[in-house]
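For the sake of clarity, the format in which proteins appear in this thesis is described at this point. The fold follows as a row of integers, each naming the local backbone shape at the matching residue. One such record is shown here in full, so that the layout can be seen directly:
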Amino acid sequence: MIRVLVADDQETVRTGLRMLLETQPGIEVVGEASDGVAAVELARRLRPDVALLDIRMPRLDGIEATALLAGTDVTDPVAVVIITTFDLDEYVHAALRAGAKGFLLKDAGPQLIGEALRAAANGDALIAPRITVRLLAEFARRPPRPRQPMDPLTAREEDVLALLAAGLTNNEIGDRLFLSLGTVKTHIGGILTKLGLRNRVEAAMWAYESGRIRP
């Protein structure tokens, strides 16, 4: 059972998300918060598997709350998925760099929201497809960065990175490359270690920002 905390300043939205999530097998809403400060306090007390946070909230916005719950200096992080009405690139970039493992729009269907929560709970990440396409196109337009991995990626790691950057899940990568799920996770772990990154979203961003991968 994946335990989820929902935070949004509108009660009707929180109620709608709770009702939607209750239709998803294996997901339980364990708490609700109406602002960012309450979300952080409740997440630290309840220790949910995933915190589903809105961007614009009183007292503390979703990005600041994400940094407090999932930032690089947090010793015991909580997985965070951002869900918002505002389809703005600056919000996406800020949320991912703050440590979010997912970014969804509020018009996402129950299946996509459920997939994002399960991915975050399992240490993976999921971004709404239309946002992913736009982000990758933007990264492709940027001048390549000179940053290189501490150790060269192996040929198989390059294959895994390309599929990861294309938005495939671990299972899909395994099916495409005829690898077991455990082997895929091992390769992704090696990629993150060599690149000095925290998660697969950052790895995908690096692949495009470095010019190694093109849409």
About this structure: Residues 181-195 form the longest helix (15 residues). The chain has a mean pLDDT of 85. The chain has two domains: 2-131, 142-209.
